[in-house]
Amino acid sequence: MILAVRDSATMLRRQLRHMSRSLSMLLMLLAVPIVFLLLFVFVLGGTLGDGLGGGTGGRAAYVAYVTPGILLITIAGAVQGTAIAVALDMTEGIIARFRTMAIARVSVLTGHVLGSLLHVLASLAVVLGVAVLIGFRPGATAVGWLAAVGLLTATTVALVWLAVGMGLAARTVAGASNLATPLTLLPLFGSGFVPADSMPAGLRWFAEHQPFTPIMEALRGLLLGTPVGTATAVVAVGWCVVIALVGYGWAKWLYNRDRTR
Amino acid sequence: MTNTSTGPAIAVTGLRRSYGAQVVLDGIDLHVPEGTVFSLLGPNGAGKTTVVQILSTLIRADSGEARVGGHDVLRDPDRVRAAIGVTGQFSAVDDFLTGEENLLLMGDLNHLCRAEGRRRAAVLLERFGLGEAARKAGAVYSGGMRRRLDLAMGLMGDPRVVFLDEPTTGLDPRSRRDMWQIVRDLVADGVTVFLTTQYLEEADQLSDRIALLDRGGIVAEGTPAELKRLVPGGHVELRFADVPALTEAAVLLGVSPDPADESLVLRVPGDGGVRALKALLDRLDAAAIEVDGLAVHTPDLDDVFFAVTAAEEVTSR
User: Fold this and answer.
1) Is pLDDT of B109 > 70?
2) Closest residue to A103, CB basis, from B57, B93, B109
3) Of A1, A156, B166, B267, which sits most exposed with the smallest number of CB within 10 A?
4) Could you give the domains of chain B?
């Protein structure tokens, strides 16, 4: 157990070095949610905000509505980077070397997960900062902030493990990137940008039942200081747990299988 | 560990492995005494890398037993891993890290303390001529430098058994020589080296024993000298200016020229050693026969393979 912690710390240091040497890719990943935020708030936000109800909300109402969805896009975009980094790692001989060493096997993966978690949390802080700059006014209590950070962290851990699985399952770097792309689109096909009840029946059903919607709803409530239904909160956390467990199990199985067969 | 018995560094019996319907290893037996160099020689696709992968715990055999450093690769893989260093055919270097960082990473993963890790990294960088490139990223290293860094990474844990899978494939002649010297130094330190190669010369230069692997089976095993005796391919080619000189030499040396060959060349069997060559030329000189040109043909992998696999085919009939 102590060995696993020590090896994971070593792999985390390796991961942080990698990140410090691929800053341009990290900035690219960070640019996407910021561009989305600016686009939706300044280009579409006036009209969309009016449509949220009442007909007078405008841009200010929309920035409050869209920020949780943008935060989810931030996470999804960043974990796409995780999938790519894992796939890239697997094409290199260094992983074979790690497998011939007396180290905790899973540490290769936990290094990626911990590195990505730090990367995502930093990205979320930047994006939230931009949102505040353009008029996002969170009304969360201290407890609400804590819960919001907790939910964002849980979502990140879940999606990172899923992305690690994608990176391992893909045979190429491009394949890993493609596998992870739908994650960045899910907030759009949920209640991230417009309420689900404004959508046509089939799409609406999907939006209401996909995992990102309850997470975004819960996040919106926590950040704005509005009530969060117990059912929403339970479903949001439940999805995180399920995705995390499936992602972890899948990734571990893929990593431990005999890759040469 | 208190394993002080001087058993074999590697002991393999009845190793089999298939990929689907394709049999890659068909019952391999190997025995490598401690502190020796053992070469597995064979063409591409013979199964050399598969043997290394099994012995270094990367993949499992379908059946058979393999012990490395006294430990079973299946039952005790972590003990095996702690005892070995592996350098693959394709460099296992982290391109994002500098040479020094790659070595320090290996130090951390071998659970050395910081100071010891730095000390060993400095020694290895110096020893492998990587001192100047220590702070450059692995991505910019030349082929030879990568291979040396790769090997240095495998040595950070002070292994007792080192696997080198085609360590010089694709290297220029100078880098190849450097690699050979490194292997010799390793053996001088008492390390057991298990080497795979396609080059007979390399196996000849470095090994105590050589096994010839072909289509999943060991077709010959022995010391380099023993193996070479299996090969009739060594000869000296003498070229003459005209037919009388050729005929005269053929009579003198008791070798009949190839009637199908009209190039005035006589093939004299022999190993092409300096003494034998001098004696040959002295005889021709004493008989006042003018030699136009001379070439020494030493047995190469093709010859060995041809000889051994041809013999196999005969006995299996």
Assistant:
1) yes
2) B109
3) A1
4) 34-58+72-229 (3.40.50.300), 235-298 (3.30.70)
